[in-house]
Amino acid sequence: MSLILVGDFMKKLVIGNWKMQKLSSEIHPYFHPFMNKSFHNVDLALAVPYLFLQSCQEAHNGTPFKIGAQDVSAHDNGAYTGEISAAQLASLKISFSLVGHSERRKNFHESSEIVAAKAKRLQNAGILPIVCVGETIEEKPHFQDVLKSQLEPVLSLDPKNLVIAYEPVWAIGTGMSASIDDIKRVHGFIKYFLKEHSYDFSSVRVLYGGSVSEKNASSLLQCDHVDGLLIGGASLDPVGFDKLIATLG
Ligand code: 13P
């Protein structure tokens, strides 16, 4: 059972994604501003590079964060040099992992079937998968078809231990977040699509990601059908991230 899901379901989930950034020496200082703090309205988490999982697990003690991974192997175990398995993450008591981030879909040619296979490995190991979906700018006019094809393989997963993150590719790292209207439309579509498949999927949380900042975080989080945020650049500076979280009430 995932640690995050034993929290209050009404709470929003806010995850920082460090991507391939930060050095070992930056880990302890990162957590300092968050020591002995608690944020009542949000569950907080950080997706960190594999290499730093264990040191973050130690350094974050006394802060409100859960620590998770950014990816996992689609394979169970064996001769897969450089890969990390779900069982290995579970052995470090990792509670969640991103899968299918658009940077992995694009740069490493991960199909939606591979992404779903990774999510399944995580669920089998008791880890919460955060499955990322999103369309490119060219695909925006037919986002429903794109999202359907990314979400269909996910329908074979256990809805009780699943989070979806909608990250439009054109909004990632561009400083141009999706508009409130865009987000209402797309999140509404995702929730409708999941619920139409099975009522059990109606409780799956859907996060928004893409150019979330201290300025827009609060209004994005209050948007209909938004159950949390996935934040890249604005999660890197701990003082700035702390201020962003403080805007969430
Ligand atoms: P930015 O917040 O930097 O746009 O990145 C979003 C993202 O890709 C989080 O996974």
Search tags:
alpha/beta, binds 1,3-dihydroxyacetonephosphate, globular, 32% helix, 8 strands, single chain, 249 residues
Helix percent band: 25-40%
Task: Give the low-confidence spans.
Answer: 1-7
**Strand-residue proportion:** 15-25%
What general outline do the C-alpha atoms trace? globular
Small molecules bound: 1,3-dihydroxyacetonephosphate
Mean pLDDT score: 95
What's the order of the H and E elements?
A: EHEHEHEHHEHEHEHEH
What is the topological layout?
Elements: E1 12-17, H1 27-31, E2 42-47, H2 53-59, E3 65-68, H3 86-91, E4 96-99, H4 102-107, H5 112-124, E5 128-133, H6 143-151, E6 163-166, H7 180-197, E7 205-209, H8 217-222, E8 228-231, H9 238-246
Parallel strand pairs: 1-2, 1-8, 2-3, 4-5, 5-6, 6-7, 7-8
What does this structure look like?
- The chain is of the alpha/beta class and 249 residues long.
- Helix content is 32%, strand content 16%.
- The protein is built from nine helices and eight strands.
- The protein has an eight-stranded parallel sheet.
- Helix 7 links the parallel strand 6 (163-166) and strand 7 (205-209).
- Helix 6 packs across helix 7.
- The longest helix is centred in the last third of the chain and has 18 residues, at 180-197.
- The protein is globular, with a radius of gyration of 17 Å.
- Bound molecules: 1,3-dihydroxyacetonephosphate.
- The site of 1,3-dihydroxyacetonephosphate (13P) has 14 residues, from strand 8.
